[in-house]
Amino acid sequence: MSGDAATAANATSTSLPRIDALAGAPGSGAGPEPEQPRQGLGASLRPADTGAKTEGTFPYAADLWAEGLLWAAVLRSPHPHARILSIDTSGAEEMPGVRAVVTHEDVPGDSNYGRHVVDRPVFASDLVRHHGEPIAAVAADHPETARLAAAAIAVRYEVLEPVTDPETAFAAEPLHPDGNLIRHIPLRYGDPEATGEVVVEGLYRIGRQDPAPIGAEAGLAVPRPDGGVEIYTASTDPHTDRDLIAACYGLEPERVKVVVTGVPGATGDREDPGFQIPLGLLALRTGCPVKLAASREESFLGHTHRHPTLLRYRHHADAEGRLVKVEAQILLDAGAYADASSESLAAAVAFACGPYVVPHAFIEGWAVRTNNPPSGHVRGEGAMQVCAAYEGQMDKLAARIGIDPAELRLRNALSTGDILPTGQTVTCPAPVAGLIEAVRDAPLPALPKDDPEDDWLLPGGLEGAGEPGAVRRGVGYGVGMVHMLGAEGADEVSTATVRVHDGVATVICAAVETGQGFTTLARQIVQEVLGVEEVHVAAVDTDQPPAGPATHGRHTWVSGGAVERAAKMVRTQLLQPLAHQFGMSTELLQIADGKITSYDGVLSTTVSETLDGKELWATAQCRPHPTEPLDEYGQGDAFVGLAFCAVRAVVDVDIELGSVRVVEMAVAQDVGRVLNPAQLATRIEAGITQGIGAALTENLRTAKGLIRHPDLTGYALPTSLDAPDIRIVRLIEERDVVAPFGAKPASAVPVVTAPAAVAAAVRSATGRPVNRLPIRPQAAVATPKG
After folding, report:
1. DSSP 8-state class, residue 550
2. Composition bias, kind Low complexity: at what positions (predicted)?
3. Which of 66, 143, 435, 590 is the most core-located residue (most Cβ within 10 A)?
4. Residue 26 pLDDT more than 90?
């Protein structure tokens, strides 16, 4: 525990054994397993948290404990849209064991917060704008008492008609003082009068995917003797969370400390501080540690989701299938608050034509407020929705012209030096054609025999109700792209310190390990540069310099780059005395396998002998080249870099029942450079599986703004039985010269591409248009052939 945390614990007579355990938690900080040999970049170094997770000792936020602990519960609105007439907390305050009740009247600082736009209230005061919006919070001696007390708060509502259709939001009464329109991007590129010989149109709808974290949100707030508070939680951007929380408490940021606990994976769901803010208020009010462990229902109600999207497309092509013009209208349902909708819309509009050369493009994009659940960051936001739509259009063009879908994509494939519809030149490697060829040419899986006794799976499962004679096999392609790092002028910077003492290296960087493998990468970088076998990654808290959010592959590039620069500075400090002694420059010395040698073989020693009790350290920053916002015509160099992926899906469809089984996903991906083969394969496989969920099962359904079945029974996640064979047929390593190590982020682009590939394969099997995700059974029913 840090000194500040220990002081706070002593001041409140708390004992936090689980917080102490964070020192060994990866990404919140971890050291290597001692039996593992030194391995640098390019090796499959095993994650340091493997043992802790398999043994059940990994310290998640829900495991935290403190002496004198109180439990929190939050009262949430049962209505998607209502006027609050009164809030009576007396019933809760009079209950035995209740220590505090807070509402909007008890927020001492800013009553609104927001990571991108400050428009979301800590507690609703006059209006409720979505189902599950927080109204009040309670702290009590027992979790059941807290829940009962929250339920005892009497709120009188005037129920209002919710606005749930984003198309009606334009003309509806304003749902928020900022209005219903969050952003409009009219992209104009080329000649509006251009036309093609072949024109196809389509209307597409993408559902509301939930990030569905492995563990629901949880946290612990501990008051400090200086009147501040420490919050222990699975934050993915602790410094921004700290600043938002401090503003709501009316405190200086230095009096709020966020300590990152073990994050059980994150695809965007850990970025909303709305769960943490009530905790700190209750801790400050009671002077005691306060813990919240959300139920699965609260998790569904409280965090943001993928934007439901409506897309209208018109593609123009010549007789050979080369694209001439793309016209599109894209409408994102932001839900009640803005959150990341502006950024998601920018990605959707910029990538609306896909990784294809399009001479003329005219795209209209809008993000609007409704009374639906709030939307925000989910891996591949914006890009996933448009990929499903433009790939549907490419399949329509191929069918209309009468050419192979893969061939059509090859004729239009983007490459380095081409220009995006935003006017930005693609300067990074863009091996789109090579990716398409790799999945096209990969061997197809064997066909099952039409024998009911054969041990092969029907789309409904081994014991499914379908008949093999009704099963049709389909093959489809998806090609997708995402941007790396932030966009439109975001200041991407990260700071890291590398310290070596007694032969052990420590990395201090506030980059949170969310499952993307940063702590493993940081260890590999230091091992590669310094030849030190034992490398530890310190626990993350806001006493360290900021590293930014764990989105868009930032930490591989920006934080990994900062670690590399700091390690190279330490390397220079290590080698300078030797170089001076032998009259040569440090560039003529190399470190490999724990040994230091000179180019001519005169010098040969070990790293450990050279260190010999020395303490060396250096701090460095990494900041990529700047970008710029899109202008009023959707033009501008908005992105630092791009990553691409191609997927070929093979599915079996029961055309009588409409059930779908994904047989195989063949993947080819543009990765820049493979830094950890095993970790990279895992990230790609996980992304493909998440994409399959978006394609077939995952849709957080609402009825007039009310979330239906907010649990893992009503929200169908793909399981191991739903996961197909995932074959990585090719990884193209064309290094991006402006990226540290030349590597590209790996996990988002498979999520973006997989749903489009599955939809294309279902089209191939059924002949149906399949223009909605997730694919409903009725969309996969077709008349049997022959």
Report:
1. S
2. 1-25
3. 435
4. no
**Is there a contact between 571 and 529 (Cβ–Cβ < 8 Å)?**
yes
* H helix intervals, 337-403: 341-350, 383-401
Please, how many CA atoms are within 13 Å of residue 752, restricted to the half-sphere of its CB? 32
731 vs 223: CA distance, rounded Å: 50
Q: Which residues contact 389 (CB under 8 A, 6 or more apart)?
A: 202, 204, 206, 311, 313, 328, 352
pLDDT of residue 593: 78
Instruction: Please classify residue 8 by burial: count the beta carbons closer than 10 Å to its beta carbon, then call 0-12 exposed, 13-18 middle and 19+ buried.
Output: buried
CA distance 107 to 130: 20
Angle ∠(27,32,34) on CA atoms, nearest 5: 160
- The SS3 call for residue 151 is helix
CB 494 within 8 A of CB 511: yes
The pTM for the full model equals: 0.91
Q: pLDDT-based confidence at 226, cuts 50/70/90?
A: very high
d(CA 726, CA 442) in angstroms, rounded, equals 12
CA distance 401 to 408: 9
- Count of helices and strands (H, E) across the chain: 18, 31
The two tokens of residue 462 are: 């081994």
Which tokens belong to 329?
Answer: 């209208």
- Residue 316, SS3 per DSSP: strand
Q: What percent of the chain has pLDDT over 90?
A: 70
Q: Which residues of 212-238 are buried (b: 16+ CB within 10 A; e: fewer)?
A: bbebbbbbbbbbbeeebbbbbbbbbbb
Q: Which two tokens stand for residue 385?
A: 């929705």
CB 762 within 8 A of CB 682: no
Q: What are 244's two structure tokens?
A: 């938002």
Domain coordinates in residue numbering, the chain: 60-159+221-262+269-286, 307-487+626-777, 492-620
- What whole-number distance in Å separates Cα of residue 524 and Cα of residue 530? 10
Provide the CATH topology of domain 492-620.
Aldehyde Oxidoreductase; domain 4 (3.30.365)
Q: In whole angstroms, give the CA distance from residue 628 to residue 636.
A: 6
Q: How confident is the model at residue 463 (pLDDT cuts 50, 70, 90)?
A: low
CATH topology identical between 60-159+221-262+269-286 and 492-620: no
Secondary-structure class of domain 307-487+626-777 per CATH? alpha beta
Q: Please confirm whether the linkage preceding 278 is cis (ω < 30° from 0).
A: no
Q: Do residues 292 and 143 make contact, with C-beta atoms less than 8 angstroms apart? A: no
Structure-token pair, residue 131 = 């189902």
Give residue 662's identity as a one-letter amino acid code.
V
* Structure token pair of residue 342: 């502006």
Rounded alpha-carbon distances, angstroms, from residue 548 to 372, 376, 382: 29, 17, 21
